[in-house]
Design a protein that fits this description.
Blueprint lengths: L1 H13 L5 E5 L6 H11 L7 E6 L6 H10 L1 E3 L3 H16 L1 E4 L2 E4 L3 H12 L2 E6 L10 H13 L3 E7 L6 H14 L2 E4 L4 H9 L5 H5 L4 H13 L5
Parallel strand pairs: 1-7, 1-8, 2-6, 6-7
Antiparallel strand pairs: 2-3, 4-5
């Protein structure tokens, strides 16, 4: 399963016709953990810039965009990502005041992002779709993904638990799936694959795998996800 997932993501990255990819699976199965490690292990195959963004609790697309901009990383030169995030933070708080009038400075980081995305390409990972605030409609997220990919060289990877989507959100996803999502994969690795991926100790594989129940496997997966730092 993990090898299939790796190959599917490799195809997604290399195929210009695949612009939006959906990785689905139950909570605690290791979706985010897997994707983060896949990105770390394959930096040379990624677009020059990437952003791993959780939409958990976000209320609108503006919040999604702001978090996305704040998570931009350069996959080639890490210092570029720090510069970009610094500019995002600076201009999001910067105001000019003259003659008693406060003027908002245009958010140049938004324009800079589109320049990067159009010229160089960017991978946007949107995680936890099912945990977005109820004010953030799923069609808005899908529309945002579609806009990114149609107006730039961006690719978007969506990560979510389809079983936990509200019924109306699941219906929206089903309606727009063919129009927006180019490829998808149900992520359900078996116990041995999870242990091998999380522990990185082949000699412990048999010792750890045999007593694992489904519940224990879920707890192990959650431990791996919570211990992983941001991309």
């Amino acid at each position: 399963m993990l090898e299939q997932a790796r190959q599917s993501l490799m195809s997604f990255l290399s195929d210009p016709g695949q612009r939006v990819f959906a990785l689905k699976g139950p909570w605690g199965i290791g979706k985010s953990f897997f994707v983060r490690h896949f990105l770390d292990d394959n930096r040379d195959k990624l677009p020059p810039f990437a952003s791993f963004t959780s939409v958990f609790g976000l209320r609108n697309i503006r919040e999604v965009r702001d978090v996305m901009l704040g998570c931009i990383e350069s996959t080639r030169r890490p210092w570029l990502g720090r510069v970009f995030r610094g500019l995002t933070s600076l201009f999001s708080r910067f105001h000019l005041t003259g003659f008693g009038v406060s003027l908002n400075v245009p958010n140049v980081s938004n324009g800079a992002f589109w320049a990067l995305a159009k010229k160089h390409g960017v991978l946007i990972v949107l995680d936890d779709l099912e945990r977005a605030h109820t004010d953030l409609a799923p069609e808005e997220i899908l529309g945002f993904a579609s806009s990114l990919t149609e107006n730039s060289r961006a690719k978007v990877l969506l990560i979510f638990n389809a079983d936990k989507l509200p019924q109306d959100s699941a219906q929206v996803l089903a309606t727009y799936r063919e129009k927006v999502i180019d490829a998808e994969l149900e992520f359900r690795p078996d116990t041995k694959e999870l242990v091998r991926a999380f522990l990185h100790e082949p000699n412990l594989e048999n010792t750890v795998c045999e007593p694992l129940s489904g519940r224990e496997r879920e707890l192990l997966s959650r431990t791996g996800e919570s211990s992983t730092e941001g991309y």
